[in-house]
Amino acid sequence: MDMKAGEKMQRLPIQSAVEPPPTDAQLLLRAEHGDPFAYLGPHAVERDGRRRYAVRVVQPHAAAITVLTRGQEIAAERVEPEGVFEALLPADVTDRPGPRDYRRRFGVKR
């Protein structure tokens, strides 16, 4: 660009391409999470101002996940398209479920 003496350069606004940091689920899928079990399995979560328990699993080839606990079947929500699911346990589950307190059932994509 040729500029003549005395001309000022026009400043254009800088557009930031800063992306938000990846979520725990995204880090898991990329095998970059430093502590996967801090996210996976049963964990206390805050929902609608109340403490609840959610069970999170990674099943990339699953079409659906169901968590079985206390004779109930709870459908898990897909929180990442690549296969991270979360099932919000009923409000009457007030203690963190142990490994023998729940089971997962999944249907495979065809």
Describe the structure in your own words:
By secondary structure, the chain is mainly beta. It has a domain at 24-96: Immunoglobulins (Immunoglobulin-like), CATH 2.60.40. Helix content is 5%, strand content 39%. The chain has one helix and seven strands, in the order H-E-E-E-E-E-E-E. The chain has one helix at residues 24-29, and strands at residues 41-47, 50-58, 62-69, 72-75, 77-80, 84-88, 103-108. Strands 1-2-6-5 form a four-stranded antiparallel β-sheet. The longest helix is centred in the N-terminal third of the chain and has 6 residues, at 24-29. It is elongated, with a radius of gyration of 23 Å. It starts with 23 loop residues before the first helix and ends with a strand.
Any chance you could write out the topology, listing elements then pairs?
Layout lengths: L23 H6 L11 E7 L2 E9 L3 E8 L2 E4 L1 E4 L3 E5 L14 E6 L2
Antiparallel strand pairs: 1-2, 2-6, 3-4, 3-7, 5-6
Alpha-beta content class: mainly beta
Strand portion, in percent?
Answer: 35-45%
Write out the CATH superfamily name of the domain at 24-96: Immunoglobulins
Number of helix segments? Answer: 1
Percentage of residues assigned to helices: under 10%
Report strand order across the widest sheet.
1-2-6-5
Q: Write down the overall mean pLDDT.
A: 87
Q: Termini, distance in Å?
A: 58 Å
Unreliable segments (pLDDT under 50, ≥5 consecutive)? Answer: none
Indicate the CATH topology of the domain at 24-96. Answer: Immunoglobulin-like
If classified by CATH, what would the architecture of the domain at 24-96 be? Sandwich
The number of E-state strands comes to 7
Main pleated sheet: 4 strands, antiparallel
In CATH's first tier, which class of the domain at 24-96 applies?
Mainly Beta
The radius of gyration is 23 Å
- Strand and helix order: HEEEEEEE
Coarse shape = elongated
